[in-house]
Amino acid sequence: MSVASPWGPIRLTTVAMAVLAFAIVAVRTRRLGLAAITVIACLWTYEAVWNATDIAVHHWGWAPEPYWLVLAAGWTGWMLSRGWTPSLRLLAAFAVAHLAWVLAGFPYNYAGRPWTWPGEAWNVATKALWLLAWGLGSEGVPRLRPGQVGWLAALGRARPGAAQRRAGLHE
Known about the structure:
The structure is a single chain. By secondary structure, the protein is mainly alpha-helical. The protein has one domain. The chain has helices at 12-29, 32-58, 65-81, 88-103, 117-135, 150-157, 162-166; strands spanning 2-3, 10-11. Strand 1 (2-3) and strand 2 (10-11) form a beta hairpin. Helix 2 packs antiparallel against helix 3 and helix 2 (32-58) runs antiparallel to helix 5 (117-135). It is globular. Residues 139-144 and 149-158 have low confidence and may be disordered.
């Protein structure tokens, strides 16, 4: 089930999981800006992974992938620079589920295609794991820290500007 948006139909489950991830980050950090950035980064990176998988499995052209990757990298870098990191355990669970989806033929529902339960179940399950991995990043589980990856270390040490401080996007 989906709702209309300027970007096309959006699954209600995506909206529900995005709201949940936003709420988790907002409650744990009391930083609404960080919660918003986390959800945006999470959704862009999921779409980049999903599109790359769709292109690889169904042999579409690679032309749109740089667009997804640049947006995913930008939002993710911003989120990491603000001190929020995803849960590596939940990302590993996502990777296993995503690989299983690929091995099942990567079925999904899309406008103009017949709707199927497997297509919906795989999409909802993997997107839920992905959003929870990013939303629960502050939990006491191993997670990627900006200082652990060379170029991200500089982002982690960056000082927030006045606009970032006003928006609550600083540590």
